[in-house]
Amino acid sequence: MLNLSKNGCSLWVASSAEGLLKPTAVALGKFDGVHLGHHRVIQPILPAALDRENTQPQEQTYSTVVTFDPHPLEFFSGQPRALLTPLDEKVQQLGSLGVEQLVLLPFDKELSALSPTDFVDKILVQQLQCRRISVGQDFCFGKQRRGTAQDLQLLAGKHHIPVTIVSLQTYTDNTPSPETPISTSLIRHYLESGEIKNASFLLGRPYTLIGTVVAGAKMGRTIGFPTANLQLPPDKFVPRQGVYAVRAAIMGDTPDPTTIHDQLGVMNIGKRPTVNGSNLSVEVHLFDWSGDLYGRKLTVQLVDFLRPEQKFPSLEHLKTQIQLDCNIAREVLRVNADLS
Ligand SMILES: Cc1cc2nc3c(=O)[nH]c(=O)nc-3n(C[C@H](O)[C@H](O)[C@H](O)COP(=O)(O)O)c2cc1C
Ligand SMILES: Nc1ncnc2c1ncn2[C@@H]1O[C@H](COP(=O)(O)OP(=O)(O)O)[C@@H](O)[C@H]1O
């Protein structure tokens, strides 16, 4: 059981039946990315929505997101799955929406074998004392994903628990294609192909990398572009390799508790072929900034993709290109700030 407090919002994170805040109003799903479609599923369980709906004074419920850990696809494939929002980031995003509790159901053989009826009776009714449920239209649950959102409505109805089924939120891009449902996989696709603005639009915020600054080869400073090398959570989904225009915040830490917001910069994600690098690195050069960032936490928002990484014939050529990248990034960031 963890009680995490992030960004001034406190969110209770429970991974066992003890100590749950009950009774609950529950949104069920995987919620990787906490994107705009997810917001719509979560909205009906928030206190403000419940207050609006009830004319009579009601028993207080805790707005609770119930999800699975590990991700079911990871459990069934045995392969680690990269996530748009690893746990810390998910907690932060859910907290900022007003969710009070996150319950991580351990997704194991036992849970995956529960019938839809047992899932409702044992988990939602007995353990969570659920009073209201919200799910997306495509929600499936129970053994072999046999239970649908409509089954959930029937089964929960037997316990007089109302279920809101939220239709999939769609969006229209600039192509003549029909409306596309917003989904985690669509956002992953956009991030993989460097279509950062589309990804941000569907997330309702910029895609963000949060990491601790670690030492690199200490070569950046020798070419006039020191770069803070970020160590990301191992399960963080890394977007297309290449150069980006970014906004960053240097998170406060002891002994320096101040958070420095809105630093502009450029980021490179790649293997640095020019210097015969081998491992993937994520490194940020901040404009008009100097100081020591080792050990500090950086939050980096991707604003736009600029170009793929290249192997240059010399460090001098690389230096010239990075200067050009900085000029382009400044312009991209300026236009972007004007638009927002
Ligand atoms: C904006 C930017 C663009 C970069 N582009 C490339 C590139 O195209 N090819 C490459 O080999 N390295 C590229 N790099 C990475 C540099 O090789 C790296 O920053 C340099 O080797 C310093 O590494 P260090 O932080 O480990 O000292 C880029 C870095 C930045 C900040
Ligand atoms: N403008 C800046 N942007 C990024 N890092 C900076 C900047 N100015 C100073 N630094 C510091 O320099 C370090 C990067 O210098 P660099 O020579 O690239 O070393 P390393 O290879 O260890 O990353 C950063 O981790 C940070 O502590």
From TrEMBL:
Its EC number is 2.7.1.26, 2.7.7.2. One of its GO terms (molecular function) is ATP binding. The keyword Oxidoreductase does not apply. CDD domains: FAD_synthetase_N (cd02064). InterPro entries: FAD_synthase (IPR015864), Riboflavin_kinase (IPR023468), Riboflavin_kinase_bac (IPR002606), Riboflavin_kinase_bac/euk (IPR015865), Riboflavin_kinase_dom_sf (IPR023465), Rossmann-like_a/b/a_fold (IPR014729). Keywords: ATP-binding, FAD, Flavoprotein, FMN, Kinase, Multifunctional enzyme, Nucleotide-binding, Nucleotidyltransferase, Transferase. GO terms for biological process: FAD biosynthetic process; FMN biosynthetic process; riboflavin biosynthetic process. Residues 202-334 form the Riboflavin kinase domain. It comes from the Bacteria. The keyword Metal-binding does not apply. Pfam families: FAD_syn (PF06574), Flavokinase (PF01687). It catalyses: FMN + ATP + H(+) = FAD + diphosphate; riboflavin + ATP = FMN + ADP + H(+). Pathway: Cofactor biosynthesis; FMN biosynthesis; FMN from riboflavin (ATP route): step 1/1; Cofactor biosynthesis; FAD biosynthesis; FAD from FMN: step 1/1. PANTHER family: RIBOFLAVIN KINASE, RIBOFLAVIN KINASE/FMN ADENYLYLTRANSFERASE. NCBIfam families: PRK05627.1-3, PRK05627.1-5, ribF. Belongs to the ribF family. This is Riboflavin biosynthesis protein.
